[in-house]
Amino acid sequence: MSQPIKLLVSACLLGCPCRYDGKSCPSDAVSALEEAVEWVPVCPEVLGGLPTPRVPCERQKEGGILSKDDFWRTKEYEAGANAALLLAKENGCRAALLKERSPSCGVHLIYDGSFSGRTIPGMGLTAEKLHAAGIAVFSEQDLPGRMQELLSAASPEGEPRP
């Protein structure tokens, strides 16, 4: 009997209102995976102790996380990233599907740190930590084009790839 494919996923992509603005951002492309995977939902910011809603934060050039009202939130983001990594390991997740542009979860793009709405290539703190630990990271922007690659990366070792 094959093991279920467990996938760490940004909770906001599943409809959980945990974003900085108290909203969610459900994705039809993410929902299309529902029957193929077992979700392991995560919101690193909430796990790190930040409230919902919260003041927007952006990753700065030196790597720290600054809120729009000038408070460093790196400690909370680090705690959330560590908790997300632990959750992924405890659940045997080999891949993660994360919210693009987030200072935690951005996979290909993050905001540039100026609070102007401009994005730059880069990873959020959680995405970076997961990737460094050997967990494949994808964003909702990668779907549906890279869905097979995501499912293959997420499949338990020794199991046939879907």
Give structural notes.
The chain is an alpha/beta fold. The chain has one domain. The protein has helices at about 30, 45, 75-90, 125-130, 145-155; strands spanning about 5-10, 40, 55-60, 65, 95-100, 110, 120, 135-140. The radius of gyration is 15 Å and the shape is globular. It starts with 5 loop residues before the first strand and ends in an 8-residue tail after the last helix. The mean pLDDT is about 95.
Mean pLDDT: 94
Number of helices: 5
Alpha-carbon distance between the termini?
A: 14 Å
Helix content: 25-40%
Structural class: alpha/beta
Poorly predicted spans: none
Number of strands: 8
User: Which range does the strand content fall in?
Assistant: 15-25%
The main pleated sheet reads as: 4 strands, parallel
Number of domains: 1
Radius of gyration: 15 Å
Taken from the alpha-carbon principal axes, the silhouette is: globular
Q: Element order, helices and strands?
A: EHEHEEHEEEHEH
- Spatial order of strands in the largest sheet: 2-1-5-8
